[in-house]
Amino acid sequence: MSAFTGFVIVETAERVVGEYASRLLADFAADVIKVERPGGAPTRAMGPHVKGQSAVFAYLNTNKKSVVLDIETESGRAGLATLLARADALIDDHDEGWCAAHALGSAGVAKTYPALVHCVITPFGQGAPEDRRRAYPINISNAGGWAYHTRRAASPAAPPLKGAGRFLPAYEAGLDAAMAVGASLWRKRRTGLGQFIDISEVQTQLSRADVVLGRILAGDDEPSALPTRYDMGGPAACFPCADGYVYLFMTTRGHWNGLRTLMGDPAWAREFPADWLEFYCTPERVEVFRNEFAGWIAGQNKVHVSDEAQKLSVPIVPVNTGVDLRHNAQYRHRGYFQRLGEAEYPTVPYRMSGSPVRLEGEAG
Amino acid sequence: MSYRNRGGPLAGIRVLEIAKVWAGPYAGKMLAMLGAEVIKVESTGALDEMRAYGGVDIEHAPYFLSHNTEILSVQVNLKSEEGLARLRDMVARCDIVIDNIRPGAMERMKLGYNDLQEIRPDIIHVSIKMYGNDGPLGYQTGYAPCFAAIGGLTYLVGEERDVPRGMNIRYGDATVGAAAAFAAIAALHHRERTGEGQFVDVSAVETMSTLIGDSLFAYNLTGESPQPDGNFHSELAPHGAYPCQEDGWIAIACGSDGEFNALARELGATGLTEDSRFATCESRVAHCAALDAILGKLTLAHDVVALGEKLRAAGVAAYPSASSLALVSDELLWERQAYRMVRNGNGGTRPVVGPSWRMTPDEAAIECGAPLLGEHNDYVYCELLGLSQEELRDLVARGVVT
């Protein structure tokens, strides 16, 4: 029993984005029925495979049921119709052409199932030109601007970077889809009515940049082709230390005073104006700072120096690896990883006192 | 009662936002975009920094105007006992309280979850902190790029054996707000089922980790921890951004032989398809560095927009890597209303970034931009709390509303 107990959600989605959206609802005990094509969902083919099962598929499909239906056939579509007749929501992530060809277009579904919340997630949303209907996550992070604005290596040959992992833009859009479906199911409780939700993966990327892009949009900042257009300037960066890397963020006199204390107030630091971060933050000074700081931090341990920095209100933090996170005391304390079967799963960042997320069923 | 009938699936839900900067206000904005009435608690003595950034007056601050769309503003002096008493009256009239202020600060104002529950037993309290609210590191605070570093994203962004580059420094806050908004909606459903409110304790750093959830899970299974990998993909090749004319970059990914053959054909390099190194997806992945070097030379002569059109017409997923200039001048985005024109409390109109969704038939209206400080004092104090105009004037005169 949890927050979405009692809701039946049919998932015809076959990409990471849609599978993730409905997993977020299944986390809260929605009854998610995953419709798989004969031979299985395409995500089952995604590596790495462990004991014959895709880790990606296993991660995305906990707490769900699975049925195999060939919706290329009449009987398969009839089977899907039977499911939809008793469902509260349908989550899909196919392009418009595919949806239309399988009687899953928005208008038709709304007419046949007026009480259904129907969500379709696509790269650029409904009505996008034919040639903007298919995209991989790396296309989305580039089309949405975040990749272009990643900090590149100094060489002009260094390309924009996709970001962390393989599916980050898909998780972002999946989260928005889950939010919109959750809200529309709330409306359904009130009115008994469904609605159509059209999620754009690229627009999710824009939305996550609202404060930066909004200023450019309104002309407070010049739009440009500069890869540094989203940046803040200043000395913030990763630095190698004795056992890995730390990240330093520093924008105020308070941060600077704290850092000087942390470093034992070296002579070079005393030559900087006290308010250099606010008023005299030139590229040359940043360069001098980074060189000097790099020499000091190189000998420090990442967790220890971060804890000491926190005491002085200096935002130095460890650049954690997967290994670090697995053993992180705070993550352990909060139960971020949950055991299910033989494996530990990363779960969700919200700890709920009344309806906690529980992983109960492994992906089939 | 509501200030304005805007429609949307969360119409009728009221949210009190005791939040600053980006993550907390973004959570409020998401709920407002879905139709909730969101009231932001402000005061001149403890202004949201976003009203100060940009060096102009607090009613024309670019950062603040960029993301407080459809948010109402009420002034409350949180350093005054009477102000806190009025704030408790507001809590009693709200379904959800969102906070992202320093660990312990809500408790010191007697606004911790237990206090809120006494005011309204079924309250939903969504509290956003860097590490969550308790635990060995719960006392620590930081900024979005710190979340990404602690949460495991930063380490992975960059080339192998290079110092990590990390996500863009602005990345992270908004995602944390989105996760908080989703959890708030789940809590509404729980309340509807059981009559109970709850405490929703959001960790910003765990939100970041969730964006590489599959990688962390795979590591738990295989023992191979995720490593920085530039634009590498273990199953797609090519997979990267390739240079074009005038510093343009095109992002191309191929997941099948058909896509790869079409790419080679359109680039006039059919020889690629006969090269045994590139014969299958697997072998292309194995030789992706060589493939990238060849492709980078072929794309260089092209205009990025034209090349994208040509490749997509041939069935290849190829999109220009968008600069800020490309984003704000993209006609499709304007047509779809990815950007909305709103009227701010200061009377000006302004384009803002809208939500990722469109809804039919019941989408919340998005018309009003960021509020003036205390723009909705009348509505909150007089209509919601039932005070007279005279009583409100008295609160203002005595610095309770400031």
Could you provide a short overview of the structure?
Chain A has 364 residues and is α/β, with parallel strands linked by helices. Chain A is built from 16 helices and 14 strands. Chain A has helices spanning 16-26, 55-60, 74-85, 96-101, 106-112, 137-143, 168-191, 201-207, 210-217, 253-262, 267-270, 276-279, 283-297, 302-311, 322-326, 329-334, and strands at 8-11, 31-36, 49-50, 53-54, 64-68, 89-92, 117-122, 195-200, 237-241, 244-248, 316-318, 337-340, 343-346, 350-352.
List the helices and strands and how they pair.
The complex is a heterodimer of chains A (about 375) and B (about 400).
Chain A: E1 8-11, H1 16-26, E2 31-36, E3 49-50, E4 53-54, H2 55-60, E5 64-68, H3 74-85, E6 89-92, H4 96-101, H5 106-112, E7 117-122, H6 137-143, H7 168-191, E8 195-200, H8 201-207, H9 210-217, E9 237-241, E10 244-248, H10 253-262, H11 267-270, H12 276-279, H13 283-297, H14 302-311, E11 316-318, H15 322-326, H16 329-334, E12 337-340, E13 343-346, E14 350-352
Parallel strand pairs in A: 1-2, 1-6, 2-5, 6-7, 7-8
Antiparallel strand pairs in A: 3-4, 9-10, 10-11, 12-13
Helix pairs in contact in A: 1-7, 7-8
Chain B: E1 14-18, H1 23-33, E2 37-42, H2 62-67, E3 71-75, H3 81-92, E4 96-99, H4 105-108, H5 113-119, E5 124-129, H6 144-150, H7 153-156, H8 173-194, E6 198-203, H9 204-210, H10 213-222, E7 239-243, E8 249-253, H11 257-266, H12 271-274, H13 281-286, H14 288-299, H15 304-313, E9 317-320, H16 324-328, H17 331-335, E10 339-343, E11 349-353, E12 357-360, H18 377-384, H19 389-397
Parallel strand pairs in B: 1-2, 1-4, 2-3, 4-5, 5-6
Antiparallel strand pairs in B: 7-8, 8-9, 10-11
